[in-house]
């Protein structure tokens, strides 16, 4: 594939003229650009308030700049694909500003400084970044990005879902960016595999669906990771958890308690799991298993495993369950599974019950108590045969010591809604005993949830385990003050 084709990445070839629908007439408004003689300009249409037409004109001009850059780099025999990101950035900086000015002069256009910067940033993002998504990915206030269509891009910003003015040129433009994202982690998305999970270089989770599954065109959903990750003190500062609760959780991790972090979608389960992993001693061997690698272990002795989808022929699929079975042969001290959502729950419980104390995972559930019934269902799903519920509950009761339930509240804030101890019963039931919980009081005039995280004043049975590890937890943290 030629360099021009790779830079242009699926649109018109470098020698093709702009498509008719991309040449937009009209005079430019203040801060835009247009023909100084007042004749139609390729980036016109803004003065009349037609933002869609103006943005299409910007895309057309940007495409022509990309074509000119591709031709120049081919003449110089420079292959951006073979360069590191930093070297590619330097090459682009060397040539792109001059190409933008040359293209504007050729078309008789007058560029404002702001529009010149916009074209430069957009073109750079198209070549070595993720196109229109780059500004949203750089915005630390955005936790989730949802691309529903070329002119329908939504984000969750500061806990609230809002529509942005970010635009793609068309469905093909969205598809090109989707291909770029998934190809960087060895995945593919096409008609044979129209659904794919992937990740960005920073660990952010990406889901892509395309036709024929997505009836109205390709969709991209990105759940961003905090740029620097949460630290334990951050959770206390933002009200996700209290200092007393954190002291107790740290002791439980150090005492090799098996912990399940539960919650709904986007409730912060994986983020909390990352925070809890900070308390694991540095000299322990940890094996992490995920569909898309998101966990950020800080320890030195970490083995990271990631599942793989089947090939085009439907072969060589590697599931979470396959990796979990293999991990048991890798001499792990702890096993951390990013999420249990299928038959691997049975193997996870088996690992917790056979010498891999201190293992952790996340699971989707509406409440801490629902975790038990959810586990029962997943174990039955993975067993392949009908196991008696009594046996399953005995496994759960002996394997799991603690459930930490996260909840995304209506005000956009994530809080630990409950920390509960799992008590093995007789096999007829598994007791879930709350130790800490969020006590909701109401909603204030600003729409913020009011309430407090409090102790239930129950003395956990786990204190005996903590004592055996020489870990002392002040009794006062279990008092409701």
Main β-sheet: number of strands, strand sense, barrel status?
A: 9 strands, mixed
DSSP strand tally? 17
- With strands numbered from the N-terminus, the spatial order across the biggest sheet is 11-10-12-13-9-14-15-16-17
Task: Please tell me how large the radius of gyration is.
Answer: 27 Å
Tell me the number of structural domains: 3
- Report the CATH superfamily of the largest domain: P-loop containing nucleotide triphosphate hydrolases
Q: Give the helix tally.
A: 14
Describe the structure.
By secondary structure, this protein is of the alpha/beta class. The chain folds into 3 domains: 3-128, no CATH class; 135-223, Beta-Lactamase, CATH 3.30.450; 232-478, 3-Layer(aba) Sandwich (Rossmann fold), CATH 3.40.50. Helix content is 34%, strand content 20%. It contains 14 helices and 17 strands. It has helices at residues 3-8, 51-75, 85-107, 113-128, 134-138, 171-183, 232-237, 243-254, 269-277, 320-327, 344-352, 370-383, 389-399, 462-468; strands spanning 33-34, 110-111, 142-149, 152-157, 160-163, 195-199, 205-209, 219-223, 259-263, 286-290, 302-306, 334-337, 360-364, 402-408, 414-423, 431-443, 449-455. The strands form 3 sheets. The chain has a 9-stranded mixed beta sheet, with helices on both faces. Strands 5-4-3-8-7-6 form a 6-stranded antiparallel beta sheet. The chain has a two-stranded antiparallel ribbon with strand order 1-2. Strand 14 (402-408) and strand 15 form a beta hairpin. Helix 10 runs parallel beside helix 11 (344-352) and helix 12 packs across helix 13 (389-399). It is elongated, with a radius of gyration of 27 Å.
